[in-house]
Design brief:
Blueprint lengths: L3 H6 L2 E2 L4 E3 L10 E2 L6 E2 L2 E3 L3 E2 H9 L5 H6 L32 H4 L27 E3 L2 E3 L1 H14 L5 H10 L3 H8 L2 E3 L5 H16 L5 H15 L11 H7 L6 H19 L2 H5 L3 E3 L10 E3 L1 E3 L11 E3 L3 H16 L4 H18 L14 H16 L5 H20 L1 H4 L39 H7 L2 H11 L3 H8 L6 H14 L3 H5 L6 E7 L5 E11 L4 E8 L1 H17 L26 H15 L3 E5 L5 E3 L7 H15 L3 H8 L4 H22 L4 E2 L14 H9 L2 E3 L2 E3 L2 H5 L17 E3 L4 H23 L5 H7 L3 H20 L2 H24 L31
Antiparallel strand pairs: 1-2, 2-9, 3-4, 5-6, 7-8, 10-11, 12-13, 14-15, 15-16, 17-18, 19-22, 20-21, 21-22
Length: 874
C-alpha cells in the first residue's frame, strides 16, 4: 500500500524523516504562485498564492493582486540591497523592496537634500545576520523580521511584552530558513512510528490518484498529530478541535477537516478487509464495494444519508438476534443487494428486539421462543401505530422484512438452525402464519399517480430549445461552479443537457443515470422476419437496487447520439485515461483521472436550479377565461423523468410484463399503477373519438356520445387490436394477438377494420408512399428493370389507393366539421396516446414488440387538417 519508491521520487528522506517535495515531479499537481513566482503545491487564495505570500498579502491589507506583485512583496526573502544614500560605513541601512532608498529617505519629500543616517546595526534575531532596517519595541530588526513580528502582533490583537520580544529574538528562524521551510514539505520526525507509517500511506494513496490536496493534507495532518500527540489517526473521532487550535492563525481548518477525513477514510478503506469489517458492529459499506459515505449499525448509530426514514438506527438486542442479522446481512452483501435491503433488515430486527426486551428473560434464551412472541410483536406494532409512535409504512416494513428473514432461515435450516448455526435451538413454532400481515395505507391513489409524471405539454416545453437554454444557464448559475468549469474539469452546460436528455429518454433511477460508464453504449444487429438487418441501440447500466449488473436497455438512435457526444466531451477532458475506466458523468472533485462518477445530489441540485431558472411555463389546466395556468415546477424532481417515461410506455400500449422488465420493478403491482392512469386517459380519448370512428367503407361505426359511459369506453378500448392505420375487431385475431388473421392482413378491405382521426398521420403517409411506389414501379418497368409479373405484385392496388384516399378524406372532413374549441380539445386528448406510439417504436427493438398493442407511425403523430393538395394526384 505504501509505495516507498514513489515517496523517494518526490523527495522523501527516510533518515531525516522529512519530505521535501519536488514540485516539478510528474506525480504532483501544483500551481505557480503569482506572488513570488515559485512553483507551489500548497495554495490557499483562489489557487494563486502560496502560504507565505498569502500571509504577506493579508498583512498589507489585501491590496489589488497586480499591485501586490508589482511592489515585490509576496514571500521574497532575498537579502535586500543597501540604500544609495546610507551605504557608507557606519551608516548602512537596507533599501525598501523595489526601491533604492531606505525607509526613512523613501518618505522624504522631493527636493530635500538627503544625508546618510545612523545605522541600526545587525538584526536582533540571533539566527539572522542581516542589517537592521528599523526598530520595533525599542529593538532593531531587519525588514523581514520586522514584518514577521508586526504580523504576529496584529493577529493576536495586542502588543508584545519585553519577555516575548526576547523569546522572539532567540527562537525565530532566519529569513533563509523560513524560505526553506516555505518549500512544500512534510515533517515526520516528531511522529510515533505508527502515525508516521499512516501519513506515508495516506500520501502514497493520494499521489497514486493524483489528488491535488494530498501533499498539503499530509503536511497538516503530520503537524497536527505532532502538536497534539496523536499516536494513531483512527483514534481521533473529531479532527476539527485539533485543527482549530493548530491552524487558528489562518482560519483554513474548515476545508482541512474535510480533506483529512476524506484521506483517512481512504486509508481505512485500503487497510480493512471485508472479513474484518463484518466482525464489527458498524459496517462501512464502501469496504464491500458500495458507494462511499454510508454505514449500517447493528449496535445503534446514525441512519445512512440515503435512508428515506431519516431516523437513527436503533441497536439490535439480544446478542443472538444481532449475530443472526449480521449473518443475513453478509448474505445480502454477497448477492449485491442494495443498501435499502440492508437498512430494512437492521430496522426490522431492531424492532423485534424491542418486543423481545419485554420478556422476563429479555429474549436471551432462544430455545424458549415461540409463536406467542410473534403475536406479541404484531400486537405491539399495531398499538404503536395507533398511538402515532410508528408510521404505517414503517410498521409494514418491519413485519415484511422480519418475515422474509425468518423465511430464508427456514428454507435453509441446515445452515441457520443446524449445529453451529446462528439460530440453533430456535423452536419450529417460532414462525409467521398466512394471516400475519399489515393493512397498508395507500399513499397514492390510482388516479393520483398521474401527478408523478409530467404532462406531455410540459415535457415539450422543458426539452424545447428555450427550456434547455434555461438548463444551461442553471448549470452555470453558481459562481463557484463557473470557476470549476473554466478550469476544464467540471461538468458544464453541455453535460447537464446530456444528463437530462438521457434521463428523460431512458427513465433510469437517478443513481443509475449518474453511475453510467463511458462505454455504456452498445449496438446490436437484428434480422427482421422479412430478412432486413436493423441496428438496435442499447445503454448498459447497473441496477444495484435489484441486484443486477450490466442490464441492457433499448434506446432510440437520437439518445445514442446524445451519449456519443457526451463520450467525446469526457474523452477530451481526460485524454490520458483509458476510455474503459472513464465515467460518463465524472465528478469534479478528487477525480483527476475521471474514473469516479458524480453523485445523484449533483443532478438533484441541477434540476432544482433549472426549475428556478425557468420561472413559469404553461400547464394543462386553464382558468375561467380559457387561459392556461402555470405548471407547478416545484413538483418536478429527478424522479419525475422516470415516472413520465413509464407513463408514456403505458399510454402507448407496452405490455405490463415488458414494462416491468424495462423499469426494473420487482413487483408487477408497481408497474400496474401506470396502466390505471393510462386506462383513464384512454377512456377520456374514447369519449372524444367514439363519434368519429369509421369502418373500411368510411361509414361511422363507433359509439355515440350518450352511449359512452366508463364500462362502454373500457370495452371500446379492450375490444380492438392495433393494426396498420387503425384497429382490428375480429375476435379470433384479437385473442391470438394479431397472429390469426384469416384475410392475410388486408385491413383496408376488411369489415373488421376500424379507424379514426388519431390515425390520420399514418393514413396520409401510407397514401403518399403508395403513390410514390406506383411511380417508381412504373419507371422501373419502362426501363426494363422489372418483369411484368413482378411489377404486378409490387404495384399498389388501385382499390388500396382509393381506400386510403377515402379514409383520409372522411377523417379530414370529420375534423373540419368540428368547431375550433372542440377540435383543440380533441387534439389535447389524443396527443399523449399518439406520441406515445412513436416513443415506444423509437425505443423498443423489434424483438421486444411481439404482443405489444402498438403500431409504428412513420411520422410524428400530430393531428392536423392537411392542405388540399396532400391527397391529390397519382
Amino acid at each position: 500500500m505504501t509505495d516507498l519508491d514513489l515517496l523517494r521520487s518526490i523527495g522523501y528522506d527516510p533518515g531525516e524523516q522529512f519530505i521535501w517535495f519536488a514540485s516539478d515531479h510528474k506525480g504532483l499537481v501544483g500551481v505557480t504562485c503569482t506572488g513570488c513566482g515559485a512553483s507551489r503545491l500548497f495554495e490557499t487564495v483562489s489557487g494563486t498564492l502560496c502560504t507565505g505570500c498569502t500571509a504577506a498579502w493579508k498583512r498589507d491589507g489585501k491590496p489589488n493582486m497586480e499591485t501586490f506583485r508589482h511592489e515585490g512583496h509576496g514571500s521574497d526573502t532575498s537579502t535586500p540591497a543597501l540604500c544609495r544614500v546610507c551605504c557608507l560605513p557606519g551608516h548602512e541601512r537596507p533599501a525598501v523592496p523595489a526601491g533604492d532608498l531606505c525607509q526613512t529617505h523613501s518618505r522624504t519629500k522631493h527636493g530635500v537634500d538627503l544625508v546618510p543616517l545612523r545605522e541600526f546595526g545587525e538584526c536582533a534575531v540571533e539566527s539572522c545576520d542581516r542589517i537592521a532596517a528599523g526598530t520595533l519595541h525599542r529593538v532593531a530588526f531587519c525588514e523581514f523580521h520586522n514584518r514577521r513580528l508586526s504580523g504576529i502582533a496584529r493577529l493576536q490583537g495586542e502588543g508584545f511584552s519585553d519577555t516575548e520580544v526576547s523569546d522572539f529574538c532567540r527562537t525565530d528562524p532566519s529569513a533563509e530558513r523560513v524560505q526553506e521551510l516555505r518549500r512544500p514539505h512534510v515533517d515526520l520526525s516528531g511522529l510515533a512510528p505508527v502515525a508516521r507509517a499512516q501519513v506515508l500511506a495516506i500520501l502514497s494513496l493520494g499521489l497514486k490518484k493524483r489528488l491535488r490536496s494530498t501533499p498539503q493534507t499530509a503536511a497538516r495532518l503530520a503537524k497536527t498529530m505532532d502538536a497534539c500527540g496523536v499516536l494513531d489517526v483512527f483514534d481521533v473521532v473529531d479532527w476539527q478541535p485539533l485543527l482549530s487550535d493548530t491552524f487558528r492563525r489562518n482560519g483554513a481548518y474548515a476545508n482541512a477537516v474535510k480533506a483529512i477525513r476524506s484521506h483517512i477514510d481512504a486509508l481505512r478503506l485500503a487497510t480493512t478487509s471485508p472479513d474484518d469489517e463484518m466482525a464489527k458492529d458498524s459496517w462501512n459499506l464502501a469496504v464491500f464495494g458500495y458507494p462511499r459515505g454510508d454505514r449500517i449499525h447493528f449496535a445503534g448509530g446514525p441512519g445512512p444519508a440515503s435512508d428515506k426514514v431519516g431516523q437513527p438506527m436503533p441497536p439490535i438486542r439480544p446478542e443472538w438476534l444481532k449475530a443472526a442479522a449480521k449473518a443475513r446481512a453478509r448474505e445480502l452483501v454477497a448477492s449485491r443487494k442494495g443498501k435499502t435491503a440492508l437498512i430494512n433488515l437492521v430496522r426490522a430486527c431492531a424492532e423485534f428486539g424491542k418486543t423481545l426486551a419485554l420478556r422476563e428473560d429479555g429474549g436471551d434464551d432462544i430455545t424458549r421462543l415461540g409463536r406467542a412472541d410473534i403475536e406479541r410483536h404484531l400486537i405491539r406494532l399495531n398499538k404503536a401505530e395507533d398511538a402515532g409512535e410508528l408510521g404505517n409504512q414503517v410498521h409494514a416494513q418491519a413485519v415484511v422484512h422480519l418475515r422474509k428473514f425468518l423465511a430464508v432461515a427456514e428454507s435453509n435450516r441446515l445452515v441457520w438452525k443446524g449445529p453451529g448455526g446462528v439460530l440453533e435451538g430456535l423452536p419450529d413454532t417460532f414462525r409467521f402464519v398466512e394471516g400475519d400481515h399489515v393493512r397498508q395505507t395507500k399513499i397514492v391513489a390510482a388516479d393520483e399517480t398521474e401527478g408523478k409524471s409530467v404532462p406531455l405539454k410540459v415535457m415539450r416545453q422543458l426539452l424545447s430549445a428555450e427550456g434547455l437554454d434555461a438548463l444551461r444557464r442553471a448549470a452555470l448559475h453558481d459562481g463557484e461552479r463557473g470557476v470549476r468549469q473554466a478550469a476544464g474539469k467540471a461538468m458544464g452546460p453541455d453535460d447537464a443537457v446530456a444528463a437530462v436528455l438521457i434521463h428523460a429518454e431512458t427513465g433510469r433511477r437517478t443513481q443509475e443515470l449518474v453511475s453510467l460508464r463511458w462505454d455504456c453504449l452498445e449496438a446490436r444487429e437484428h434480422v427482421t422476419p422479412d430478412g432486413r438487418t436493423t441496428t438496435n441501440w442499447f445503454v448498459i447500466y447497473d441496477a444495484n437496487k435489484v441486484g443486477k449488473r450490466r442490464v441492457p436497455l433499448p434506446i432510440s438512435a437520437a439518445t445514442a447520439r446524445v451519449i456519443k457526444e457526451q463520450q467525446k466531451r469526457v474523452d477530451l477532458r481526460y485524454p490520458t485515461t483509458p476510455t474503459a475506466k472513464l465515467a460518463l458523468f465524472p465528478k469534479h472533485q478528487q477525480n483527476p483521472h475521471g474514473t469516479e462518477s458524480t453523485t445523484d445530489g449533483w443532478f438533484s441540485t441541477l434540476v432544482r436550479e433549472w426549475m428556478t431558472e425557468l420561472g413559469t411555463i404553461e400547464g394543462v389546466d386553464v382558468d375561467l377565461d380559457g387561459q392556461p395556468l402555470p405548471y407547478p415546477l416545484d413538483t418536478i424532481t429527478p424522479y419525475s423523468f422516470r415516472h413520465t417515461y413509464a407513463q408514456r410506455h403505458a399510454d402507448g400500449g407496452t405490455p405490463p410484463e415488458v414494462l416491468q422488465e424495462i423499469m426494473g420493478h420487482q413487483n408487477l403491482e408497481t408497474t400496474q399503477t401506470y396502466y390505471q392512469v393510462s386506462r383513464k386517459r384512454q377512456i377520456e380519448a374514447v369519449r372524444a373519438l367514439a363519434p368519429l370512428q369509421i369502418d373500411f367503407k368510411g361509414v361511422h361505426s363507433g359509439l355515440t356520445s350518450p352511449e359512452v359511459d366508463d364500462a362502454a369506453a373500457s370495452l371500446y378500448v379492450l375490444g380492438g387490436l392495433a393494426v396498420p392505420y387503425g384497429n382490428c375487431t375480429e375476435p379470433n385475431n384479437n385473442r391470438a394477438g394479431g397472429k390469426a388473421c384469416a384475410f392475410r392482413h388486408l385491413c383496408l378491405g376488411c369489415g373488421f377494420f376500424r379507424t379514426d382521426p388519431s390515425h390520420l398521420p399514418d393514413l396520409r403517409y401510407a397514401l403518399e408512399r403508395h403513390l410514390t411506389d406506383r411511380t417508381e414501379v412504373r419507371i422501373a418497368l419502362d426501363a426494363g428493370m422489372l418483369e411484368p409479373w413482378t411489377a404486378e405484385i409490387a404495384m399498389p392496388h388501385d382499390m388500396e389507393v382509393a381506400k386510403l384516399r377515402l379514409l383520409v378524406e372522411r377523417c379530414e372532413a370529420q375534423l373540419t366539421s368540428l368547431d375550433s374549441a372542440t377540435r383543440t380539445a380533441l387534439e389535447d386528448r389524443l396527443d399523449t396516446i399518439t406520441e406515445a406510439r412513436a416513443f415506444i417504436l423509437a425505443t423498443l427493438p423489434a424483438e421486444m414488440l411481439i404482443g405489444a398493442d402498438v403500431h409504428a407511425p412513420e411520422r410524428p403523430t400530430v393531428i392536423e387538417v392537411a392542405p388540399d393538395n396532400v391527397t391529390g394526384g397519382a
